[in-house]
Amino acid sequence: MAEVTAEARIEAPAEKVWATLTDFSLYGEWSTTHTGFPKGAPTSLEKGGTFEENMKLMGFPAEVTWTVEELETGSTLAIRGKGPMGVNVGTRYSLVPDGAATTVRIDGEFTGAAVSLMAGKLKDSATAALNESLRKLNALAV
């Protein structure tokens, strides 16, 4: 298993950050691992809903089928996905209002046999991607 976390303070209210985070037409502008939605971007989010995403991490392309596991509008989005080679991925976005700003935390988890072979490099690459994604999300949300 490889676990990664990134956190940033975004100088925008939680409602605006949430709107940007869940506007899938903007997803490619801030998510550095995102390369496309093969069946179209999700039009709405609901617990149990699914969508497919094409991603690239460590230079490897992957198609992940995501399921929304937890959804608290304005504060939490947790998704779990199945990728190639038996890799399972979990991502949790948490927003905490902080005055006129918002603290955004992204927790990621990778499991599966293939992960154990490259856990260290995967952690480094995924952490860098999350931090860059938060930087780009900040630029879009403010």
UniProtKB/TrEMBL annotation:
It comes from the Bacteria. It holds the Pfam family Polyketide_cyc2. This is SRPBCC family protein.
